[in-house]
Write a structure and sequence with these properties.
Elements: H1 18-21, E1 36-46, E2 49-58, E3 64-69, E4 78-80
Length: 83
């Protein structure tokens, strides 16, 4: 039995709070957490499909998130914004 661990990349924040660590990334429909504040949203064309991307900011740890709503891609969803 192997244990899969995710190492933080150098450009990714390493100080995610516990609620942010619990967000399931890259899975459409996965919930965020209560301390995320919604920001701006925009629409983008991905191939022939228009998707909505909404920005969020965590009040606890300051992490910036994007939620991509693409009903044709189950692997869309939460991602950390890397500056």
């Amino acid at each position: 039995m192997t244990t899969e661990t995710q190492a933080a990349t150098p450009s990714e924040p390493t100080s995610l709070c516990e609620p942010c660590q619990g967000i399931q990334r890259n899975w459409r429909g996965a919930p965020g957490h209560a301390e995320l504040q919604q920001g701006n949203h925009r629409k983008e064309l991905r191939g022939n499909v228009q998707v909505t991307i909404t920005g969020y900011f965590c009040d606890r740890c300051g992490t910036h998130w994007h939620y991509t709503n693409d009903k044709t891609n189950q692997r869309a969803g939460w991602s950390v914004v890397v500056d």
